[in-house]
UniProtKB/TrEMBL annotation, chain A:
<keyword id="KW-1133">Transmembrane helix</keyword>
<comment type="similarity">
    <text>Belongs to the peptidase S33 family. ABHD4/ABHD5 subfamily.</text>
</comment>
<keyword id="KW-0012">Acyltransferase</keyword>
<dbReference type="GO" id="GO:0006654">
    <property type="term" value="P:phosphatidic acid biosynthetic process"/>
</dbReference>
<keyword id="KW-0963">Cytoplasm</keyword>
<dbReference type="GO" id="GO:0005739">
    <property type="term" value="C:mitochondrion"/>
</dbReference>
<keyword id="KW-0276">Fatty acid metabolism</keyword>
<comment type="function">
    <text>Coenzyme A-dependent lysophosphatidic acid acyltransferase that catalyzes the transfer of an acyl group on a lysophosphatidic acid. Functions preferentially with 1-oleoyl-lysophosphatidic acid followed by 1-palmitoyl-lysophosphatidic acid, 1-stearoyl-lysophosphatidic acid and 1-arachidonoyl-lysophosphatidic acid as lipid acceptor. Functions preferentially with arachidonoyl-CoA followed by oleoyl-CoA as acyl group donors. Functions in phosphatidic acid biosynthesis. May regulate the cellular storage of triacylglycerol through activation of the phospholipase PNPLA2.</text>
</comment>
<dbReference type="InterPro" id="IPR000073">
    <property type="entry name" value="AB_hydrolase_1"/>
</dbReference>
Automatic annotation (TrEMBL), chain B:
<feature type="transmembrane region" description="Helical">
    <location>
        <begin position="37"/>
        <end position="57"/>
    </location>
</feature>
<dbReference type="GO" id="GO:0019433">
    <property type="term" value="P:triglyceride catabolic process"/>
</dbReference>
<dbReference type="GO" id="GO:0055088">
    <property type="term" value="P:lipid homeostasis"/>
</dbReference>
<feature type="short sequence motif" description="GXGXXG">
    <location>
        <begin position="7"/>
        <end position="12"/>
    </location>
</feature>
<feature type="active site" description="Nucleophile">
    <location>
        <position position="38"/>
    </location>
</feature>
<keyword id="KW-0472">Membrane</keyword>
<dbReference type="InterPro" id="IPR033562">
    <property type="entry name" value="PLPL"/>
</dbReference>
<dbReference type="GO" id="GO:0004806">
    <property type="term" value="F:triacylglycerol lipase activity"/>
</dbReference>
<protein>
    <recommendedName>
        <fullName>triacylglycerol lipase</fullName>
        <ecNumber>3.1.1.3</ecNumber>
    </recommendedName>
</protein>
């Protein structure tokens, strides 16, 4: 019986995945108003609000996942000698959403913001369906990018899924991370056993949840085709509103987000394989946080209203008694903490960066070398 | 710091739990503005008016809100909440959000609350009016009205809200419906089903507890719990310092620490819990409840739904009618009065249909001529259709000095297309009516000598014009008695007696229009005679013969 169940489910998954092949693929391309030019234009228009000069280019990282992967990078204030700050965005967004932070963060140090592989304007290869492997592919792409950029040490700031990947990167390349800043990171707590809960949820709700599982998170936006942008505006008017102080055209953000997610869901697919249930990580980071080198300082910034379980911050503090862990909560901010309270967020990030800027860099490096020996 | 309660129908009990917690541990937060939509607004109003929470357990339907709420609300409720309570409403005609905070009376406040909780179709068909504009549930435009940056948001749906239940699902996806962030979690979908249908008392009790716990957790995380002494210090801070710094607490204060420790293990107060227990007990007690809780009974009730539903609907309509009867009584009385008036009016019209059909137009012209004393009998040339008139001057032999010449000109013009239908007025009458005729009268008046001829003349001129059968003296008297003269003039005759000539248009209902006009011409002359014979005093325009 169990076997039958699994087989049916696999068949169902295959049917769902079928959509991008054959005749259906042709209809799809006609239906979806996706265009890389529109994405480029939207990003450019959003970034016009920046006061600091920025440069954007593709960094060729060679064959990491696909045959030739490129990572879209924008940089600001690259002349500064301080440790550069690298920004990793969350699921389904891109570099342009940092527009409220780039100016303030670039005032003191070089700032690089990248579109993660499989997201935004970067190339979209097909990731592995194995969660650990997919995660490693992301980490490798970031590491290749760092080598290509010839950055010795970086301050890694990740939001949501970017925070998960940043933590994973810091575990695997501790000597390269000067400071790990996690803004409302995803994938830290473990999935609780919901045996009790299951009985309280009606059958219909459970059935819907079950049927939705094989779908990628943003399938609805793609399925909506020409109405995808309107769907984003309808479902997330708050996202558009967050950026209204700097953007005159309110539809820019929704257009950018739609174009980001209307393309082939490659990074999204990787996220989907890393996730289980409804938004839990298959390999939660809390289980592995002890692997993070004790010399890598960690700063956690949580939005006071965020849905991400912020008790994880306290747990990290407990599990890393020797290392530096700073947990900050920004009241009144939601999951998009960098946009909700951008001033407070920028202040906290700049403070965190300044804490480990230069002073104990040498000692830290010495320690790391001792440890690795 | 302001508070904001989300609209959520029957999940509003969650707000009660939050309110209880705030009252106990952070009363200083309740001094500011509280906003809300729908059930959130009602909860906010209850909180500001210190209403017992038992009320929430009892009210089940929108209808209950209409009947019960006015009774539990204190008389000065509007004074207490004005300026503090902000109710979110959705204007019907453009769908825009409106936030109201000034209430002139208790009814005013009630009406705003009703409008804010009005879900079309579910609550009724016609949206209620507030200050002359129709509004519906605020949840359609702004379900979680935030007044400023420092608003503590309370929502019974798990999402990006300050105080909300945290579901055991690390949800990635949440939607933003009318400013309320709602996670797409299984529990939230389940909660949605409870918005419009009242859940069982057990569920309500759990929701309330959940609200209390969530609020407590929020207060804890933001260091908002402190002892009364520290609170007093803080509230003075608020005046001078900026808001964020006012919530800095003194970690040394032992009393605060103790308070905090107590709060950590705190539960919903016993008084509240016992209320819930009572409600649960009353729902579970008794044989009938036991039977209805049985599975077989549940199945049966589902199967008989097609039969019981119409009965339920009829019962609901009947209840609504009974509830609204006192309000409807006045309007019913007015409606009946209006109908009776209309019927009366119609009856009176039915009895005299012809009067309504005739439209008349009477015009009159008056010319006065002064003659010199030397002049001979001047030829009088006035268009006249009455031959008797022309004979009048010839009756006098000696030269007459004309002092005055009075020229009346009557025009009677009646037109009506419905005349033929009525059939009551013959064709020749219409003709005579259409012709305009002038009637001329000359008064020869000698200043010094007596003018008996004038008397005789006027007497003679009276005799003509009696063409109509109805033109009886009685009729004329009646007319003059009831109506003022259209015009009149007075003159002195040789015997130093003042005479009056008055012209009257009769409008007595018993006379037809045609007759009236004729009377108007001739009646005045008769009346002169009457006056002449009786006395010589100056008479008013209307007089009464014996």
């Amino acid at each position: 019986m169990m076997c039958d169940d699994a087989n049916f489910y696999r068949l169902y998954c295959l049917l769902v995945d079928f959509k991008l092949t054959g005749v259906f693929g042709w209809i799809w391309s006609w239906w979806s108003p996706m265009s890389t030019n529109l994405l480029r234009a939207a990003e450019k228009q959003i970034l016009t609000c920046l006061k600091t000069a920025y440069k954007g280019w593709y960094v060729d990282i060679g064959s990491v996942v696909g045959p030739a992967d490129k990572i879209w990078t924008i940089s600001l204030n690259t002349d500064s000698p301080k440790t550069p700050l690298v920004l990793l965005h969350g699921l389904g967004s891109g570099v342009a959403l940092w527009c409220l932070n780039l100016d303030a963060l670039a005032a003191e140090r070089p700032v690089y913001a990248i579109d993660l592989l499989g997201f935004g304007r970067s190339s979209r290869p097909v990731f592995s369906s194995d969660p650990t492997e997919a995660e490693m592919q992301f980490v490798k792409s970031i590491e290749e990018w760092r080598q290509e950029m010839q950055l010795k040490q970086i301050i890694l700031l990740g939001h949501s899924m970017g925070g998960f990947l940043a933590a994973s990167y810091a575990i695997h390349h501790p000597d390269r991370v000067n400071h790990l800043i996690l803004a409302d990171p995803w994938g830290f707590p473990e999935k609780p056993a919901d045996v009790v809960l299951k009985n309280n949820i009606p059958f219909v709700v459970r059935a819907i949840a079950y049927l939705m599982q094989p779908f990628n998170p943003f399938w609805a936006i793609r399925a909506a085709g020409p109405w995808g942008q309107a769907l984003i505006e309808k479902m997330r008017p708050d996202l558009v509103k967050k950026f209204s102080p700097v953007l005159s055209d309110s539809s820019l953000v929704s257009q950018y987000l739609f174009q980001c997610n209307a393309q082939t869901p490659s990074g999204e697919g990787a996220f989907h394989s890393m996730m289980t249930g409804m938004g839990w990580a298959k390999n939660p980071m809390l289980k592995r946080i002890h692997l993070l080198h004790k010399q890598v300082p960690v700063t956690l910034l949580y939005g006071g209203r965020s849905w991400i379980d912020n008790s994880a911050g306290e747990k990290i503090r407990e599990r890393r008694k020797e290392g530096y862990v700073n947990v900050q909560m920004i009241p009144g901010a939601g999951h998009h903490v960098y946009a909700d309270k951008c001033d407070v967020f920028n202040k906290y990030v700049n403070e965190a960066c300044a804490t480990f800027d230069k002073s104990d860099e040498d000692t830290r490096r010495g320690n790391l070398q001792v440890d690795s020996d | 710091m302001n508070l904001s309660f989300a609209g959520c129908g029957f999940l509003g009990i969650y707000h009660v739990g939050v309110a209880v917690c705030f009252k106990k541990y952070a009363p200083h937060l309740l001094l500011n503005k509280i906003s809300g939509a729908s059930a959130g607004a009602i909860a906010a109003c209850c909180l500001l008016c210190d209403l017992p929470i038992a009320f929430f357990l009892n009210f089940r339907l929108f209808l209950d809100l209409i009947i019960d709420f006015p009774q539990v609300l204190p008389e000065d409720a509007h004074l207490r909440v004005s300026g503090k309570l902000h109710i979110s409403l959705t204007r019907v005609y453009d769908g825009k959000n409106v936030i109201v905070s000034q209430f002139n009376s208790k009814e005013d406040l009630l009406q705003a609350l009703l409008a804010s909780a009005f879900v079309p179709i579910f609550s009724g068909l016609i949206p209620p009016k507030w200050h002359g504009v129709r509004y519906i549930d605020g949840g359609f435009s702004d379900n979680l009205p935030t007044l400023d940056e420092n608003t503590i948001t309370v929502s019974p749906f798990c999402g990006e809200t300050d105080i909300c239940p945290r579901d055991y699902s690390s949800q990635l996806f949440h939607v933003n419906v009318a400013n309320t962030s709602i996670e797409l979690s299984k529990q939230n979908i389940h909660r949605f089903a409870r918005i419009l249908w009242p859940p069982k008392p057990e569920v309500l009790s759990n929701m309330c507890k959940q609200g209390f716990d969530d609020a407590l957790r929020f207060l804890h995380r933001n260091n908002l719990i402190s002892c009364t002494r520290c609170l007093a210090v803080q509230s003075t801070f608020v005046v001078s310092e900026i808001l964020d710094e006012s919530f800095e607490y003194d970690p040394q204060c032992q009393e605060c620490k103790q308070h905090r420790q107590e709060a950590l293990v705190a539960n919903l107060p016993d008084t509240v819990l016992s209320l819930f227990q009572d409600a649960i007990d009353s729902a579970n007690k008794g044989l009938i409840n036991w039977i209805f809780k049985h599975r077989g009974m549940k199945l049966l009730s589902i199967l008989t739904l097609p039969y019981t539903l119409p009965i339920d609907i009829i019962y609901a309509i009947f209840r609504k009618f009974v509830a609204l009867a006192p309000h409807m009584a006045n309007s019913l009385v007015t409606m009946c009065e209006f109908l009776l008036d209309q019927i009366k009016h119609m009856c009176s019209h039915m009895s005299q249909p012809s009067k309504q059909l005739v439209s008349g137009n009477v015009s009159c012209r008056l010319a006065l001529t002064n003659y010199a004393t030397e002049s001979a009998s001047a030829p009088v040339s006035v268009a006249s259709t009455i031959p008797a008139e022309t004979t009048v001057p010839s009756s006098a032999d000696k030269p007459i000095h004309l002092k005055n010449k009075v020229n009346f000109n009557f025009t009677l013009d009646l037109e009506d297309s419905d005349l033929d239908k009525s059939g009551k007025i013959s064709a020749n009458k219409i003709l005579s009516r259409r012709s305009s005729y002038g009637q001329q009268h000359q008064t020869h008046n000698n200043n010094s000598s007596s003018s008996q001829s004038a008397n005789s003349q006027s007497a003679s001129s009276v005799d003509h014009g009696c063409m109509m059968g109805d033109d009886t003296f009685e009729n004329i008297l009646q007319v003059t008695r009831h109506h003022d003269a259209l015009m009149a003039f007075y003159y002195m005759d040789g015997d130093k007696r003042t005479r009056t000539v008055s012209l009257q248009i009769a409008k007595h209902p018993s006379l037809s229009q045609e007759i009236e006009s004729t009377i108007a011409g001739s009646a005045s002359w008769r009346l002169i005679n009457a006056v002449h014979r009786r006395d010589g005093q100056i008479l008013p325009l209307s007089f009464t013969p014996d």
